[in-house]
TrEMBL record:
One of its GO terms (molecular function) is transferase activity. The keyword Transferase applies. This is 3-deoxy-7-phosphoheptulonate synthase. One of its GO terms (biological process) is aromatic amino acid family biosynthetic process. The keyword Transferase applies. Keywords: Transferase. The lineage of its organism: Bacteria, Bacillati, Bacillota, Bacilli, Lactobacillales. Residues 17-261 form the DAHP synthetase I/KDSA domain.
Length: 269
């Protein structure tokens, strides 16, 4: 079901405020973690001002250490929902565990499956039973075929509203970047599958200064969307502060991405 061979037409994801795929490009932004009702409201206003239509934020956080901030859970979902509604945006948030799918479903418009869960097959089956779009992130050591098979797990349950996300793969040079951004995956996935392809330069690069150039590169490669993390006070962010764009940096990134997207749209015709 994921293959272009059997389904030549692009899949288009239609949300209340966002259309992704089949020539429709969209910007998603928000904090790594939902930190408080007030903070996420503020970040939603920034995201919206830069032209984002999808508000991201983690309420369940897959942290490397069990002693790091784990997320506000259901309160976080409520705060993110309220912030998205206030700005007239759609909401995307990560679901980490099969047992939380119903709870997350009560609030979100799009489920995110994180890189660490790309091959959590029971979780993939659980979102495959839902009838809401899923953003499936490529595992840090996942091949393109692994990603395609993971998507197939979701599609096999009857949910074909899938977006694939390149967020960087495990690097041997983590002195300079958190991961290696596989921009080639955008083109390969567009050949192999009809699902929209989103790039996440924040997690791919891990450093604020490197996010904008790779957002531009991913857009130039024909990505159907870009998702980035933003924060007004990165030094005190609950998670991923080192890669967050400050509001003015986000505005500049959005401007550049939109300029490149206008060019790409011309080439598509
Ligand atoms: C995130 O989106 O905050 C996240 C944890 O991403 P990934 O699963 O790609 O590491
Ligand atoms: Mn993050």
């Amino acid at each position: 079901q994921s293959s272009r061979l059997f389904h030549p037409e692009d899949t288009v994801i239609n949300l209340a405020h966002t259309i992704i795929g089949g020539g429709h490009f969209s910007l998603s932004a928000g904090p790594c973690s939902v930190e408080s009702a007030e903070h996420v409201r503020k970040m939603a206003a920034v995201a919206k001002a830069g032209g984002a239509t999808l508000l991201r934020g983690g309420a369940f956080k897959p942290r490397t250490s069990p002693y790091s901030f784990q997320g506000l859970e259901e309160d976080g979902l409520k705060f993110l929902r309220a912030a998205a509604d206030e700005q007239g945006m759609d909401m995307i948030t990560e679901v980490m565990d099969e047992m939380h799918v119903d709870m997350v479903n009560e609030y979100t418009d799009v489920f995110q499956i994180g890189a660490r869960n790309m091959q959590n097959f029971s979780l993939l089956k659980a979102v495959g039973k839902m009838r809401k779009p899923v953003l499936l992130k490529r595992g840090m050591s996942g091949t393109i075929d692994d990603l395609m098979n993971a998507a197939e797990y979701i599609a096999a349950g009857g949910n074909t509203q899938i977006m694939l996300c390149e967020r960087g793969i495990r690097t041997f040079d983590n002195k300079y970047t958190r991961n290696t951004f596989d921009v080639g995956a955008v083109s390969v996935l567009h050949e192999l599958t009809h699902f929209p392809v989103i790039v996440d330069p924040s997690h791919a690069m891990g450093h604020t200064d490197l996010v904008t150039p790779m957002a531009v590169a991913g857009t130039a490669a024909g990505a159907d969307g870009v998702v980035v993390e933003i924060h007004d006070d990165p030094a005190h962010a609950f998670s991923d502060g080192a890669q967050a764009l400050k509001p003015d940096q986000f505005m500049e990134m959005a401007k550049r991405v939109q300029a490149v997207e206008a060019l790409v749209a011309g080439w598509r015709e």
